[in-house]
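Allow me, if you will, to draw on your knowledge of protein folds for a short while. I have a record of one protein: its chain in single-letter code and its fold written as discrete structure tokens. Could you please explain, in whatever detail you think fit, how the structure tokens follow from the sequence? The record follows directly beneath this note:
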Amino acid sequence: MAWRESYEIGVEKIDCQHRQLLVKLNEFFDACSNQQGHEKIEETLKFLKDYTIEHFGSEEGLMNDIHFPELAEHQKEHADFVKTVLELEEAVKTKGVSVLTTIKLNRTLTDWLITHINKCDKLIGDYMAEQRAKA
């Protein structure tokens, strides 16, 4: 997947973190395409755990600072994503890497990028632009 300007919310720190996620997503896709998804899944899950702590903290801090009206809903989506990542990690630890876990991680990352970042996170940038326009 290629980064699109339309994914940007207008906050460099957040946009940079989103681009970082896309790089990891593409690395995982490439590994899966080359039948190396099994080898890459644990590394990708570790990245996601670290990423969610840093990125969600940054994003939620920003939303709190700007009094974003949908903060609670956004936090719930973040918590659901973390739960999915932890469930995948647990499945890999207890059952080993399977085609199913690899597919689920692919789908989770793709859905997150397309749905959450491109739609939900865009609302943050839109809200900030509205607030600037009112000022």
Notes: The chain has a mean pLDDT of 90. The CA atoms of residues 40 and 69 lie 38 Å apart. Residues 9-134 form a domain with the Four Helix Bundle (Hemerythrin (Met), subunit A) fold (CATH 1.20.120.50). The chain has one domain: 9-134.
